[in-house]
Amino acid sequence: xxxxxxxxxxxxxxxxxxxERGLSRQxxxxxxxxxxxxxxxxxxxxxxxxLGLAFQISRFFGLPVEAIFSPEPFAPxxxxxxxxxxxxxxx
Length: 91
Hints:
Helix content is 51%, strand content 4%. By secondary structure, it is mainly alpha-helical. The protein has a domain at 11-73: lambda repressor-like DNA-binding domains (434 Repressor (Amino-terminal Domain), Orthogonal Bundle). The protein has a two-stranded antiparallel sheet. Helix 2 crosses helix 3. The chain is globular, with a radius of gyration of 15 Å. The protein starts with 10 loop residues before the first strand and ends in a 9-residue tail after the last helix.
């Protein structure tokens, strides 16, 4: 009996990482060998990266793949740093 595959949405921190490093989509795209539109699709969740592309991006940022990509949404940085639930000040 064939198994049914379901597409997993991959969440990512690309926009945050680009902003931290002052990179444009074009600059990241050139560094990892893709079109700048691909970076936009990835950031919006419209496209899941191939395994190879995920590794290229992680190598570029010097971070483990799981620090950039996850099947679960990432918690807001404010909750990770300050223990707030919603990411809003005083929450």
